[in-house]
Design goal:
Blueprint: E1 2-7, H1 20-27, E2 32-37, E3 50-51, E4 61-62, H2 64-72, E5 79-89, H3 92-99, E6 103-108, H4 116-121, E7 125-128, H5 138-149, H6 159-164, E8 182-184, E9 190-192, H7 195-198, H8 202-220, H9 222-227
Parallel strand pairs: 1-2, 1-6, 5-6, 5-7
Antiparallel strand pairs: 3-4, 8-9
Helix pairs in contact: 3-5
This protein binds adenine.
Length: 228
């Protein structure tokens, strides 16, 4: 999978994605990226990328013509998204859909946002990572990228990890335990691993895990149960 990033801060990439699982996948050629500096596509001598909003108001707006120039400079745009708190909120289902596209172009905004006309002109989809506001689209783009990269074939060691985790079956994931089986915490409380997990009965374990997933989802995210 290839990501094109349009940003005023190309040096932010790959950033955290250059480490751990996504870093190894990058080195292995499972994904690649290009970071295009939007400012390189400004045409005046001051390399202006933004201007004050028509109608007044705080902050600056990124110019449609400059962003379009940056977009058109890409040899292959693929699907184009713009990171914005106004967008459709990223879900695991959306990540699966995006991870199935060979090329994804991500426009990262700064300031108050981008001139609406460039979004309209190129039918650019807006994607949000949640109901809060970041200072720029770059960290949001990294989250979209991470969610896609780990779904690419051969990136996660064990494909079952991807199938069993939270959201993939519409439920939150069951709790995990490892050694030591018996442990006393710093407050002197004895905390043992549930017996069923130590018993080796796989059918019982699967039943227990499903029940845990259902109870946890009911408690923390009843909205997920309503969706199915
Ligand atoms: N840019 C600023 N806030 C954002 C958010 N919540 N999601 C996506 N992009 C953003």
């Amino acid at each position: 999978m290839h990501f094109n990033l349009l940003t005023l801060f190309p040096e932010m990439f790959p950033g955290p994605l250059g480490h751990s699982i996504s870093g190894r996948a990058l080195a292995d050629g499972k994904w690649s990226f290009s970071a295009t500096h939007i400012r390189d596509h400004a045409h005046d001598k001051h390399k202006t990328v933004d201007d004050t909003p028509f109608g007044g108001g705080a902050g600056m707006v990124m110019r449609a013509d400059v962003i379009e120039n940056a977009l058109l400079s890409l040899p292959n745009r693929g699907r184009v998204i713009y990171m914005s708190p106004r967008g459709r909120v990223l879900t695991q289902k959306m990540a699966e859909e995006l991870a199935a596209t060979p090329t994804l172009t991500i426009l990262c905004g700064r300031y108050e946002g981008v001139d609406q006309r460039v979004l309209d002109a190129h039918a650019i989809e807006e994607v949000s990572i949640g109901d809060y506001v970041l200072s720029g689209g770059e960290p949001a783009a990294m989250i979209v990228m991470d969610a896609c990269i780990r779904l690419l074939a051969g990136v996660m060691g064990n494909d079952e990890t991807v199938n069993e985790e939270s959201f993939s079956n519409g439920l939150l994931e069951y709790p995990h335990y490892t050694r030591p089986a018996e442990w006393v915490d710093a407050n002197g409380v004895q905390r043992n691993v549930p017996d069923v997990l130590r018993g080796g009965n796989h059918a019982e374990i699967a039943k227990w895990r499903l029940k845990q997933s259902e109870e946890l989802t009911q408690l923390r995210r009843p909205d997920l149960l309503k969706k199915t």
